[in-house]
Write a structure and sequence with these properties.
single chain, about 325 residues, alpha/beta, six-stranded parallel beta sheet, 9 helices
C-alpha cells in the first residue's frame, strides 16, 4: 500500500503544529515540511522526530519543493502576518502572491494533490489558488470556519453542560467578522436546540447568542493577548481535514471551496457544511437557513467576493 504524503509549506507555529496533528491523526503518513528558511524547517522536523519517540510516527523531514513529488495533500500555512497600518486587503495581496508561487512550484510535481489553505485570509487565498490552477473545485479547500465552528461548540459545551461532540451547530460564511451562526439548524443531544433549552430550563436568548458570536470572533485576539499566537486550534482543524482526505471518511466539516454561486453571489469561496473525503470537499446539500441567516450569508459572500476580485484584478 502506498504511503500517504502530506506536505506542509510554512514551518512556523501553525505549520509545525499542523505537521504534528496530521501525523497523530494519520500514523502512516510521511510529513514533509518546507520553508524558505531551511533551518527553521529542519528545526521543526527534528523537534517532531523527538516527540515521535513517545508515540510512533518518525516520518518527518525537512524538504525542498522537489520533495513534494506525488504529494496527496499540500497544506499552505506560509504567509505574512498583519503589520501596523496594513489593511486586510494589503495582507490578502501579499499572501496571495506567496500562495501563488507555492502552487506554481508544486502543481507540476503533484498534479493530483488536494490543497488545504490555512494562511489568512484563507477564503480569499483559496479563491486565488483555484483561479490559478483551474482544477476541480473540491481540490482547493479553505480551512474556512472549521475553527470557528470548533470555538462555537466549545462555548456551547461550557454553557449547556454537554460535551462538544453532542452539539451540532455550525458557523458558516467567511472566516472573519461576517461569519454566521446557523442557530435555526442547531441540535443538542439529537434534538433541536430550542427543544433542548425548553426541556432543560437552560437559557440562550438573543443577548447570549450575540455574546457567543462576539466570543467566536474575538477568540483569536484573546489568545494572542495571552500567548502571542494561535496555532493549536487551527492545526487541529488541519489535522482533521487531512485525516478525512487520506482515510476517505466522508466527514462533515465547515470548510470552504469556490462555489459556483452562494445566495446570488457567483464564484465565491465560503464555508458551508461540506463532506470531506479522498476527493476533497464537496457540498452535498445546501443548508436550510432562516431569512436572517440567508441575508447574513449573502453579506459574507459579497465581502469575500469583493476582496478576491480586488486581488485578482491587481495581481
Amino acid at each position: 500500500m502506498r504511503q500517504p504524503k502530506i506536505v506542509v509549506v510554512g514551518a512556523g507555529l501553525v505549520g509545525g503544529s499542523a505537521a504534528l496533528f496530521a501525523a497523530v491523526a494519520i500514523p502512516s503518513a510521511e510529513v514533509v515540511i518546507i520553508d524558505l528558511e531551511r533551518i527553521r524547517a529542519e528545526g521543526q522536523a527534528l523537534d517532531l522526530a523527538h516527540s515521535a519517540a513517545f508515540w510512533g510516527n518518525n516520518r518527518f523531514y525537512a524538504g525542498n519543493y522537489e520533495d513534494a513529488q506525488d504529494a496527496d495533500v499540500v497544506v499552505i500555512t506560509a504567509g505574512a502576518g498583519v503589520k501596523p497600518g496594513q489593511t486586510r486587503l494589503d495582507l490578502a495581496k501579499t499572501n496571495a502572491a506567496i500562495a501563488t508561487e507555492i502552487v506554481d512550484r508544486i502543481a507540476p510535481l503533484a498534479p493530483e494533490a488536494i490543497y488545504v489553505i490555512a494562511t489568512n485570509p484563507c477564503d480569499v487565498l483559496a479563491g486565488v489558488v483555484f483561479d490559478r490552477l483551474r482544477c476541480a473545485r473540491e481540490r482547493i479547500i479553505s480551512t474556512g470556519t472549521s475553527l470557528d465552528t470548533g470555538r462555537l461548540r466549545s462555548l456551547l459545551s461550557e454553557r449547556l453542560g454537554i460535551v462538544a461532540p453532542g452539539i451540532h451547530a455550525y458557523v458558516i460564511g467567511e472566516h472573519g467578522e461576517s461569519a454566521v451562526i446557523v442557530w435555526s439548524g442547531a441540535t443538542v443531544s439529537g434534538m433541536p436546540l430550542e427543544t433542548f433549552l425548553s426541556r432543560t430550563g437552560k437559557e440562550l436568548g438573543p443577548a447570549s447568542r450575540d455574546l457567543i458570536l462576539r466570543s467566536v470572533h474575538e477568540a483569536a485576539k484573546l489568545i494572542k493577548e495571552g500567548k502571542g499566537a494561535t496555532h493549536y486550534g487551527i492545526a487541529s482543524a488541519i489535522g482533521r481535514i487531512c485525516q478525512a482526505i487520506v482515510h476517505n471518511t466522508d466527514l462533515i466539516l465547515t470548510v470552504g471551496t469556490v462555489h459556483p454561486e452562494v445566495e446570488g453571489v457567483p464564484e465565491v469561496c465560503l464555508s458551508l457544511p461540506m463532506v470531506v473525503n479522498g476527493s476533497g470537499a464537496q457540498l452535498l446539500a445546501y443548508p436550510e437557513l432562516n431569512p436572517a441567516e440567508r441575508e447574513g450569508l449573502r453579506r459574507s459572500a459579497r465581502i469575500v467576493k469583493e476582496a478576491t476580485d480586488s486581488v485578482l484584478i491587481n495581481r
